[in-house]
Amino acid sequence: MTTMDTRSDAHPQARPGGPPAPAPASLQASNVSAWFGNHKVLERVSLNMEPRKVTALIGPSGCGKSTFLRILNRMHELVPSAALAGSVTLDGADIYSAAVPVTQTRLRIGMVFQRPNPFPSMTIAQNVLSGLKLSGIKVSNPDALVRECLERAGLWKEARNRLNESGAALSGGQLQRLCIARSLAVRPRVLLMDEPCSALDPISTSVIEDTIRSLVNDVTIVIVTHNMQQANRVSDNCALFLVDGEGQPGRIVEAGPTEKVFNDPVDPRTSDYVHGRFG
Question: Which of these, 44, 55, 111, 228, has the minimum number of CB atoms within 10 Å of its CB?
């Protein structure tokens, strides 16, 4: 098993505004299978998630997309009955290596959930900085970091005069952008997003999509979405997950550049799904 080199960016020196921003990473899943107890939910999933690109995971409900996403930053192992086979590597280093603390993995591979989850007892500014505080990372200019992350998340103009208000006072779309800003503050190399727009109105969805496209040059993004128009708009690559029958594990039936997956797929089921003929 490969041991991750922890010298280069595990505890980087702080800079004004926060820790240095490492380059986006390549995330590679190889032959990943997953179980909850005796129930197998994923079957030998292999996928290369390229740096500076958005990879969309698509497919019907219940085919393992969100489980796969959680495997990518070791959240799967939080479930007592969960088991895993295969490997996940970040720039070639095994994220499940015993030599790599799980907290270090989650600093490098951030997560934004389907429903925004700010800390209601914290202010907007405190929410942005909360990941750094919990990780014990010191910054020389927290105010500058708060502004930078809110700007990158597309929230600064709306929140700049409300930084000392509760994060819970924001609207749904604003809350999701606050959670994105919180994830960005620790300088992740990969950002995982589990249906980040599913509970949002079209205007808020458009803002989040613009945010995703603006971030991709700085962080590798993997997004689960049931919205085929969204997948087509925001992603560079797509992977379609399907199950062969009830009770069967999910697997990838086709993956590649989004334009090809949507317009010239190899598997006829891909064409049927992306064009709404099932699912």
Answer: 44
